[in-house]
Amino acid sequence: MTSTDPPAPEAPEAFEVPEVPEVAESAEDFEPSVPARARRGFRRWRRTRPFWAAMWMALGGFVIFFLPLAPLGRILQVGVGGIAGMAGGVVIMAMALLVLALPSQRHTAGTLAVIAGVASFPLSNLGGLFVGMGLSVLGGAMAFAWLPEKPAKRPGRLSRRRESVTDGTPASPASVGSGSV
Length: 181
Fold this sequence. Notes:
- The chain is mainly α.
- Helix content is 53%, strand content 0%.
C-alpha cells in the first residue's frame, strides 16, 4: 500500500476567473470620467463669476419679457407700452449674460438690472406681477455685491517677520525687504 495523494481535479475550461482590474494606488492614477471632469470644470468656472446673481436676473427678465407676451394683434392694441415692457425684459436678460461673460462689469450690469427691474413696474404688468421685478432686483443686487474669491494665504510665506542677523530680535518694518542684511 502506497500512500500517495489522489490527483487534484482539474477546473472545467468553461469556468474562467475574470481578471481583476488594477486598483489605482494614488489619486494621480485615478482618471475621472468625462461627465465628472465636465462637472468639475463647470464648478470651477461658476465660482469665478456671480453665477447665481445672473441666474436670478435672467429668470426675472424672462418673466418680465414673456408675461405680457400675447398675440400680435393684442400687442398692437397695447401700443408702445407693451413693447417697452418687453424691452425691459430683454435688457435684464442681456445684463445677466454680461455678468457671466465679463464679471468685472458686475457693478454696471447689476445697477442697470435693478433700474430696468424697477422700471418694469409701470411698464410691464406690475413688473411681471411683482415676481420678475423682485427677481431682477435681487439678482442685480447680488451681482453688485459679489466679490471674487481671494486665494488662500499660504502659511509661512511673507507673513513671518525677519529677524536681524546680529542680535536675534525682530527686525523693524523699515528694514524688512530693504535688501540690507
